[in-house]
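Hi L.,

As promised, F-box domain-containing protein:
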Amino acid sequence: MDTGEEAAAARWGDMDADCLVEIFRRLPLDDVAAAAPLVCRSWRAAGRDALLWRELDLRGGGGATARFMPWSPLGAAFAARYGVRRFSFAGYLRLCVARAAGHAVELTLPPLLGAPELDLVSLRCPALRKVSLPSLSAADDARLPDLVARWRRLEHLELEHRPASFPATAARVGASCPGFSSLKMAGAIREVDAAAMATSLPRLKHLCLDGCYLPRHELLAVIHGCLELESLSAKLCVGFDEGDDEVAREAAMIERFEVGGSRLVDKFDQRDVDGLDDDTSSYVDVM
């Protein structure tokens, strides 16, 4: 390294810690974890600042599963720089949670989630306000009500697939999280789920059910029960028609109500059955 490069490196190393943290906030979380700590002591110290670990997006768009494989670029970086032989999502999550030191406020988890990881974040991330969860196993689904009750500051919950335990989960959220106001959920909305939103989450202000199987009766139950809704998005749903006059009338008090592309029944394309046996009498519309 020549004199000019040494001087530049020294200037970066001598930068005020608060400035370094502000710069690191603009970097991907993986770079803060895997690369920044190896530059110098001041960068290592700045990389441990809990402010950098308040928003933990561990899904990162598409390819979340591949991101945490041992042969992934992130796994290779930890192997080369830290000698980690068996890189895993569980280990990376433990690192992120430790760095957050209880101050994480947003958490998005990938499909690799298991019971130990759920227990970890429920116990060591008490300040979470926004949580996004993938589809859960049956065992973890059953435990969800007890887990979410530990996030007493929770404001927004996103569920990739409607859990079987949703009624109990909504009841625990309603009783334990006074600031809760936003829910996003996919899947089939049952009568008990709509009733749970109406009775357990009456102060809900923002609700997104895009792409759900959402019967008209259940949609009306939500509208009638959640009287403080400011936005309700039910686009591309099956179970009611986007042009339903009664639905539009009942939702008139909701500031932003979006139902574009929703239809009473799913479209049936004859091309899907071309080449099959002629006997299609077993096809039953269960809507």
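The first helix runs from residue 3 to 13.

Thanks again for sending the construct details.

K.
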